[in-house]
Amino acid sequence: MKRVTLIPGDGIGPEIVNATLKVLDAIEVDIDWEVVNAGRKAYEEEGNPLPEDVIESIRRNKVALKGPLETPIGSGYRSVNVTLRRIFDLYAIIRPAKYIPGLPTRYTDIDLILIREGIEGLYVGAECSLDPYKHHSISIRYMSRDNCKRLISFAFRYAIAHNRKKITLAHKANILKETCGMLREEFLKEARKQDRILAEDMLIDSVVAELISRPSKFDVIVTSNMFGDILSGVIAGLIGTVGILPSANIGNEYAIFETAHGTAPDIAGKGIANPSAMILASAMLLEHIGLTEKANIIREAVKEVIKEGKYVTLDIASKLGTTPVSTSKMAERIAEIARQKLEES
Ligand code: ATP
Asked: How far is CA 104 from CA 74, 107, 239, 302, 315, in A?
């Protein structure tokens, strides 16, 4: 039996993680979960938001499913999400975004994969103020050529393996000539080697404008860390709710699966969060460990429940003008349909 690290997380984390386990149980996924705590809970109980047993567990198991972890704004401990990516060298963050029929959105022809750099850029934490009064501050945007190279190479391989037709680099190399310039150079080098996929590079502002007016233009987008974070928000808006956007942090040896959204403190503890992003993240995990059939069953079940529109949480029900159900009710319906699909298969 495969052993996988499970981090319930903060805010809505435990609610959506429990909901996900219900779905995985329903389709008899053979995983031995090693539960460890990180984030706010670990910080309050142990004085450390990323205790050593969490790191050891992921190092042993190589794969983790992680609920969102709280990152204090402005001060306090450093982001555990970012630290985990750096410790485990998770240089590629994959976010697949696809229109789901039944969910009211501005466009119905969205089917794209965002690949965001995961360990460098503005996330390296090299910040300081230049004077004791904190009137002047700097943040350093660090990038290395080796990391650009492997990110670009990964993105092309991933796009081709998933039968994608086009890959777009989103950058700002006209202003950030060194960092974005280096990423673009590596992208163009790789593009020249590939004839199985169309490659284009675009300024980040044009990418955002095009995404909002004509999202079907995009297939796979690869970009740097902070630009990728912002593009995730745009994409979440385009597909109707951040509650359905999963995320996979991938490195050469380790992988951590999570949601693209955060801890949603405004709705935490109310049992109203959409569990779909976490459930779809678990599908990405299953695919990663070779359980592709079960991963597809989960994806189909989520799609069907949203299309059916009767057992959906507030974020979707408010768009449909229907009565929402709780996180666990939506998960139960997804589990029920997934179980039926497993029996039929
Ligand atoms: P964090 O600081 O952890 O990033 P945040 O509130 O800044 O938290 P998100 O958690 O991504 O950022 O939440 C952004 C908005 O999306 C909030 O209004 C939140 O309620 C909503 N949201 C996030 N996740 C879900 C979900 N699974 N279901 C429904 N709404 C969600």
From this structure: 35, 9, 9, 16, 11
Distance 198 CA to ligand 1 centre (A): 35
Average pLDDT of every residue of the chain: 96
| Tens-place pLDDT, residues 295-335 | 999 999 999 999 999 999 999 999 999 999 999 999 999 99
Q: In a mutational test of the pocket of ligand 1, which residue from 123, 242, 263, 282 has the highest number of ligand atoms less than 8 Å from its CB?
A: 242
| Ligand 1, atom 21, residue with closest C-alpha | 264
Token reading at 260: 């693209």
Report pLDDT for 72.
77
Q: How far is CA 298 from the centre of its chain?
A: 17
- The confidence score (pLDDT) of residue 1 equals 84
In the chain, the domains with their CATH numbers are 1-96+245-345 (3.40.718.10), 106-238 (3.40.718.10)
Mark residue 324 as left, alpha or beta (left: phi above 0; alpha: psi -120 to 50; beta: remaining): beta
Strand, helix or coil at 98?
strand
Ligand 1 centroid from CA 67, angstroms: 12
pLDDT, position 71: 83
Cβ proximity of 246 and 278 under 8 Å: yes
Query: From CA 54, how far away is CA 147, in angstroms rounded?
Result: 25
> 């902070």: which residue's tokens?
226
317 token code pair = 């029900």
Residue pair 152/183 in contact (Cβ under 8 Å)? The answer is yes
